[in-house]
Design brief:
Elements lengths: L1 H25 L3 H29 L1 H19 L6 H29 L4 H30 L18 E2 L2 E9 L4 E6 L5 E6 L10 H14 L19 E4 L3 E3 H8 L4 H20 L12 E4 L4 E3 L27 H4 L6 H17 L30 H10 L11 H9 L13 H4 L1 H24 L1
Antiparallel strand pairs: 1-2, 2-3, 3-4, 4-5, 6-7, 7-8
Length: about 475
């Protein structure tokens, strides 16, 4: 049973895992990855009768030893992260040929060892093969989840890169940014296109979770590949701990706000739906960004809005937070997160609400919150107080997105997007806000003026 759990389980496990492997390691589209996997499975199936014939000639045990050795060598060679997809395919085909031949050899042994229990043993052997396939697939999946790659273990950190140096196929221009958390270099590919290479500083080399976290960040970006996120290239020559993403000319929305002030309403109405579509795509893939703010939104020269910096991104069931941690920027953190609520999509939507409010007004709905504060949330200041040109439906959209109670906010990005797209054609089901809530300063100034006039009239009447 053990022999068959290795041969058939190996074949089954590789057949389940290879499509994802070819997609992640060599950026194959699903169809191309499927064809490569089919070639490996077809090779393994063809070898079953030949494996049985070989076992008849030299013996089942000897043939299994040969097959195991060949398969182990091939799979170990693939583990060195080969730069060529063709070389990896060839090694997988040879490994599957060996495992397929091993399947035939196992069944040559059954009637020799269990003459009277052939039926029972055949069933047990089949069961063992299925269990072996499950264990291999689950093991490779666990390695991928915890390290970001199919190799067992992590790469070393890159050496300090110098301008003009060629590093694993990339031409280094210069170090762009150095913090305690990361190093970012600008590099160029063979076509001269600019990319950003992100790695860890030497001081974090001994942090056990730093390397997996960086590779998990890369995996998140690959999972949401699309127009609203940076492009990530395949890295066939990678032998160190880093990842690369495309650099786009443009400016962040924080830079635009600093240079030009709040957005014009037309620009805001163009960018807001793009942000919500990006968040909708993230949430449909069970990912949370957790640091939506103008600094992490790039308005490219091509007109696209792209979400940057997945360093705090979170996948329920996969990511872990340190106890008592509160990831994010305080002014953009949802009220329930301060109270210890678990991360959820509505917290991203709240951060998007603060971001869009800030881009429109230059202010924060609840005032700026410092890291050391324990904020108290009441009613957000209406955006129309700073922007009288806002239509009432848009003011109502922002108020709903910024509600203190998550139950009063939008449930999904798509729901909010629908309100934005149909805003002027539909009436939002919300009660009119009292004047005291909309314009409290004007109300109390009026009350004070009326009181003053009454007192003056009373004084004149008494003196008369």
């Amino acid at each position: 049973m053990f022999f068959y759990s290795v041969t058939f389980g190996g074949s089954l496990g590789l057949a389940s895992t290879l499509p994802g492997y070819f997609h992640d390691q060599y950026a194959f589209d699903p169809v191309k990855a499927g064809y490569h996997t089919a070639a490996c499975v077809f090779a393994g199936s063809l070898m079953r009768p030949l494996g049985g014939a070989l076992a008849d000639r030299i013996g089942g045990i000897r043939s299994l030893l040969v097959m195991y050795t060949v398969a182990a060598i091939c799979i170990a060679a693939v583990g060195f992260n080969l730069p060529s997809a063709s070389a990896a395919l060839a090694l997988f085909v040879i490994a599957m040929l060996s495992l397929g031949a091993g399947n035939g050899a196992v069944f040559q042994l059954v009637p020799q060892r269990f003459r009277r229990e052939i039926g029972v043993m055949t069933g047990l052997i089949g069961m063992a093969g299925g269990i072996g396939g499950f264990c291999l697939t689950a093991g490779l999946g666990a390695i991928k989840q915890h390290t970001g790659d199919y190799q067992l273990g992590l790469w070393p950190l890159p050496p300090k890169l110098r301008p003009g140096q060629t590093f694993e196929g990339w031409q280094v221009e210069r170090l762009l940014n150095e913090t305690r958390q990361s190093l970012v270099y600008r590099v160029h590919d063979a076509l001269g296109r600019a990319w950003l290479l992100k790695t860890l500083p030497p001081g974090r080399a001994d942090e056990p979770q730093a390397g997996p976290a960086l590779l998990l960040e890369e995996w998140f970006l690959r999972r949401v590949a699309g127009r609203h996120f940076p492009e990530l290239p395949p890295l066939p020559q990678r032998q160190h701990l880093y990842y690369v993403q495309r650099e786009y000319p443009g400016q962040t929305l924080a830079e635009h706000l600093h240079r030009h002030g709040p957005l014009a309403l037309a620009d805001w109405l163009e960018l807001a739906p793009r942000l919500l579509r990006a968040l909708g795509m993230l949430h449909r893939r069970n990912l949370l960004h957790r640091d939506i703010k103008p600094e992490n939104l790039l308005w490219g020269e091509d007109g696209e809005l792209r979400v940057l910096d997945f360093g705090l991104a979170y996948c329920p069931g996969l990511s872990r937070d340190e106890p008592h941690s509160l990831p994010g920027t305080p002014s953009y953190i949802a009220p329930e997160a301060f109270a210890g609520a678990a991360p959820g999509p509505q917290q991203d939507l709240y951060a998007a609400g603060v971001t869009l409010y800030h881009l429109l007004t230059g202010h924060y709905p609840y005032g700026e919150i410092e890291p050391f504060q324990h904020p108290r949330f009441g009613q957000p200041t209406p955006a129309s107080r700073y922007r009288p040109d806002l239509p009432a439906w848009l003011d109502a959209c922002l108020n709903r997105a910024l509600a203190t109670d998550p139950a009063q906010r939008y449930e999904t990005a798509e729901q909010w997007l629908l309100d934005l797209e149909q805003g002027e054609r539909r009436t939002l089901d919300e009660r009119p806000r009292p004047l005291l809530e909309n314009e409290p300063l004007k109300v109390w100034r009026g009350v004070a003026l009326v009181s003053l006039l009454v007192n003056l009239a009373l004084a004149v009447w008494l003196l008369a």
